[in-house]
Amino acid sequence: MAETSETPDGGVAKYVFTAFALAVLALGLWVVFVFAADEGPRISFRTLAVQVGDPEEVVVTFEVTKDPALTAECQVTATGDDREIVNRLTGIRIPAGTEPTTTHTVTVRTDQRATDATVTYCAVTGGP
Predict the structure, then answer these.
(1) Taking residues 106-122, what's their average pLDDT?
(2) In the list 51, 77, 86, 126, which could disulfide-bond 120, CB 3.0-4.6 Å?
(3) pLDDT of 23 strictly over 80
(4) Which residue range(s) make up the domain with 20?
(5) 63 assigned to some structural domain
(6) What is the pTM of this model?
(7) Looking at residues 102-118, what average pLDDT do you find?
């Protein structure tokens, strides 16, 4: 009588390989999507200083980093106690210039005492 040996059919291995291949494919597509997507011009901003001495205004100094050839527009929001918004200054124009990072100071008038303020957004509005 001849001896026979059973060999695994490889079913489980096929599923593991297929799952691994799909995971690698998904990761590759994600990398292409994240790094190849056209996000438009990059801009960043940060609040540098906030002066809240006067009860009817707050002075905010902030910097914006963008391509110097582009223009941008920013918004600063002043908040009071419990973080409620006491006023917003919109349409702050950041002109084209020669340096990528520029510093700006604005005064936000308020009807109530502000306890803090921050730049809430900046967006590129034009270019060459």
Answers:
(1) 94
(2) 77
(3) no
(4) 9-38
(5) yes
(6) 0.68
(7) 95
